Amino acid sequence: MANEDQDILQMHNLHPAPGAKKDRIRVGRGEGSRGKTSGRGDKGTKKRYQVRPGFEGGQLPLYMRLPKLRGFKSPFKKEFQVVNIASLTELFPKGGEVTVESLVEKGAVRAGFPVKVLGDGEATTAFTLKGVKVSASAKAKIEAAGGSVSEA
Hints:
With 152 residues, the protein is an alpha/beta fold. It has helices spanning 2-7, 31-34, 45-48, 62-65, 85-91, 100-106, 136-144; strands at residues 81-84, 96-98, 115-118, 127-130, 133-134, 148-150. One of its GO terms (cellular component) is cytosolic large ribosomal subunit.
């Protein structure tokens, strides 16, 4: 019976395997723990305390060396789509009424943007322009060909 009592696992006989329990390393607690600098290397600003991102050691940083944006852009500026008289004569060979909608249908301009007709080319037929801006030279050429302009 005595042999059987010794083979039974009992609470007071339990212990972890050798090497399983290790003390944690207490860094920076004197020369004996982890050395003089505790794994932080030698002297310098970055070792004493972290510097901000983009800091170049006192040299003028890149973001200050780059040129600055000058002026401003108006949020209310209107960008006109340009159509010349020469392209009007190609799109409307018989003349007739020209509106923004008809120009969009022909694929000359995109919908939703204002249109301006410029005077490059010759007006061979009479155009009736409605709802578009017209330059002074284009207006003169269209009226000389027998057309009319009504800006809306």
